[in-house]
Structure formats: structure tokens, C-alpha cells
Amino acid sequence: MLSWTCPAPLSDQPRIVMGHGGGGVMSAELVEQVFAPAFGGPVLSALTDSAALELGGAQLAFSTDSFVVRPMFFPGGSIGDLAVNGTVNDLAMSGARAAYLSCGFILEEGVGIDVVGRVAEALGAAARTAGVEVVTGDTKVVEAGHGDGIYINTSGIGLIPPGVDLRPQRVVPGDVVIVSGAIGVHGVAIMSVREGLEFGVEIESDCAALGGLVEAMLAVTPDLHVLRDPTRGGLAASLNEIAAASGTGIVVRERAVPVPQPVANACAVLGLDPMYVANEGKLVAFVPRQHAEEVLAAMRAHPLGAEAAVIGEVVDEHRGMVVARTGLGGTRVVDLPVGEQLPRIC
């Protein structure tokens, strides 16, 4: 028995493993047991994608993110696009319109200047598309063999409109769960180029800035309860985090979850569940039932929400858990993933 190995990293690992960066159980344990106690503070304790802060009478959202995706260029985007859209989307999930970004580049000795230039151009173009300005930054170089070409960190700030209060604790039974479009696209796009796999059709990342879509939703009503962009750990991780934080149960209709056929085929070949595959241009919204129809219509009228769909609802049963109703009439528990099915996807 001492020679047995486990294909998934164990949660009591004494050293950092890839699973600690996957957005699942191991990531949560690292934050809750190491970082949160060390840093402390009531704002951090909310453990949201961006912090909502009051400063000089204004409500600000503040977020930071680091990007280590491999490969740096993939169908539909690059590490430069991700560096902007990932932080802009974290701010948007607080209802904020992103205004300014910082940008830190960590470059490995030996990487081509032309490669750095391509990434910088992509980052600048993504910032202009998202309507944000890069106003400060930093550059560091590490020795060859101590990096992976280019890593990027971005931080962002934005203003939260008056009356907007997006947080999991506001979720209540009866809320309707809506996704803005097809899931699993980004993770499968990364895997296809990383492993040289072909699925009969090129799958492009859904990487996009969601600020405009969120504005369209808030224009219907500021009374949305929570928004989340399901990146690492996919839709399953986001739903589980919201269920746990709100103390409610979530029921998802499996057949209502939009999964493109190429993504479904790729996941079947790779043995993956699309619910756990990362996205970079989708959001999941918890909306009061009385506003759900109007919000859904506003989402579908926006280019980034054309495929929006109602996938489930919040219930009073099985609190803290997510359950999927299958096409055959049965149910299954959708657990929080331990690590990440596809590491290094953002």
C-alpha cells in the first residue's frame, strides 16, 4: 500500500502542488488556512473576486489577478487579452465599471522581444476594447529556467453604481440562475493547442470583457443578487461557492446548461465534465424571480449574452449543495472540484 499513488492531489499536502491553483477545494484551503489568517481584515474575509471598498464617499471595487497561461497564444486570444479581461471581469462581478489597471510583467531571460511586443500589443488592444486605461506597471526579469516566458499581473479599480450590492449572502430561495452563454469553451481551446489535439473544428476561447453586459443587466434592475465569472473550476466551482456562502441549495437542470457540441465532444474524448472546465468570457447571475425574464431579455440583446439561458434555481433544501437534474430524471451532486482538470488555463 505504501507504493500506491493517487491521481488527484490530496488536501493535506505539506507542499504546494498544481491543485492548489485550480480554484477548487485545495485553493480554498490554501486561502482559508494560510493567507486569510496571516492577512486578516473584515474586507478580505468576504473572499470575493473583487473587494468592495468605501473611499471618500465613493464605492470602489478593487481586484488583482496573475496570469500564467500556457501556451501564451491560443485560438481566440493570448495571455495579454486574459490579463485585461480577467481583472475587468472580476470588477464587473461587483457591478463596477473598470476604470484603471496596473500591469506587472515577469519576463524569463531569453524570451524574444518580438514575443513580448505581441503580448503588449494584445494587452493594449484589449484594454482599449474594455474601455480601461493602463496607468502604472512594473517589469522584472528572472533567469532562464526560472519562468515560462511571460507571466503578467494586473490590478484594477472601478466605481460601483449607487444601489448595487452584489454578494452571495443576498441569494435567497426562489432566485433564478442564468448563464450568459455556452460553457467550457476556454478550457477546451487551451487544451486543444497545448496537446495538439484536433476535434474536427477549431474551438476558440470565449475570452472577453463583460463590463458592457453587466451594465445592460443593471439597467434593468440594480437588484441583482450576485454575479460570478466561472473561471478556474468552471461553473461547478462558482455554484458551489455561492451555495456555501449563502447557505442555500442550488438545483441545475443539466440539459438547460448550454454546452457547444464541439466542447461536449472534446470533453467526452478527454474524460472531462464541461461543468468543471474554465471559462473566460461568461458569467452566472442569481436574479430575483420577478426580474428574471427582463434580465434574460437584456442579456440576449447584448452580443456577449446572445446565448444566455436559465439553468436552475435556488432552493431551501440541501443547503450548501449543488444538485443537477439529469436528462433521465435522476439527480446527481455537483461537488466542488478538488484541484483543476486543466491546469494553467489563465
TrEMBL record:
SUPFAM superfamilies the record matches: PurM C-terminal domain-like, PurM N-terminal domain-like
Classification via InterPro entries: HypE, PurM-like_C_dom, PurM-like_C_sf, PurM-like_N, PurM-like_N_sf
Chain ranges of the PurM-like N-terminal domain: 49-160
Residue ranges annotated for the PurM-like C-terminal domain, each copy included: 173-322
Entry coiled-coil feature ranges: none
NCBIfam families recorded: hypE
UniProt xrefs under PANTHER family: CARBAMOYL DEHYDRATASE HYPE, HYDROGENASE ISOENZYMES FORMATION PROTEIN HYPE
Similarity-based family: Belongs to the HypE family.
Protein name: Hydrogenase expression/formation protein HypE
Organism placement in taxonomy: Bacteria, Bacillati, Actinomycetota, Actinomycetes, Kitasatosporales
